[in-house]
């Protein structure tokens, strides 16, 4: 396919197909293809400076198809998938290029069940998108569509994560996290603090241009150094949209997920 890759649509944020008109058409073809039953489309994004512009263009296209948008703001990709699975929405979008530099961006699509769209659905979207681009379709503005913010949904997601561990499970434990100046920069420290951990946070001051810049999951040695300096219980490094997590043990050694899950299970059992 011309537009869709293995993880939605990606490219340079200042070039086709991320110009405003094409992005609006992307939103339009998604909305017009969906089952019309549901509360609209959820959209989350990471911290790239182009994210707000792309969100606005997507909203225009989705609204033109008669569907409203619930804007989740900056939020990890897994949160959007979870919220779709546990609420009644028609689809979801994440505006992110994951671990790539800030000049890149992407549009990831999720079904109402929180899963990636099937290839046949993406093929249909692409066919319609190409048709509308060739026709130079002009979208009509719908003034009766009211987009909303998803603050209550974010609270639902944080409560779910907190519920996965016993109350005060991390009390007295020092945990270092590298937020990659990305989507986890608010929610990750907040959740760990509610679990009573002593949180040491680095790379949690996004500028729109510093996402993944010499930090995060691509550079776990950074948080590993902090773990050793602070004598922390463990450390975590997220990538830009926080769907990738690298774990570091108390000695500053990078560990895979299976190892770390075993440690956590033993800790909770003891």
Name its key features:
single chain, 270 residues, alpha/beta, six-stranded mixed β-sheet, 11 strands, 19% strand
Give a short overview:
The protein is 37% helix and 19% strand. It has eight helices and eleven strands.
Radius of gyration: 20 Å
Order of helices and strands: EHEHEHEEHEHEHEHEEEH
The helix/strand class is alpha/beta
CA-based shape: elongated
Summed up, the helix count is 8
Describe the strand arrangement of the main beta sheet, using strand numbers.
Answer: 1-5-4-2-3-6
Strand count? 11
Average of pLDDT: 93
Task: Give the topology, please.
Elements: E1 9-12, H1 20-33, E2 41-45, H2 51-64, E3 69-74, H3 77-85, E4 91-95, E5 104-110, H4 119-135, E6 148-149, H5 151-163, E7 174-178, H6 187-194, E8 198-202, H7 220-230, E9 234-238, E10 245-248, E11 254-255, H8 257-269
Parallel strand pairs: 2-3, 2-4, 3-6, 7-8, 7-9
Antiparallel strand pairs: 1-5, 4-5, 9-10, 10-11
Helix pairs in contact: 1-2, 1-4
Structure notes:
- 37% of the residues lie in helices and 19% in strands.
- It has helices at residues 20-33, 51-64, 77-85, 119-135, 151-163, 187-194, 220-230, 257-269; strands at residues 9-12, 41-45, 69-74, 91-95, 104-110, 148-149, 174-178, 198-202, 234-238, 245-248, 254-255.
- α1 crosses α4 (119-135).
- The model has no long low-confidence stretch (mean pLDDT 93).
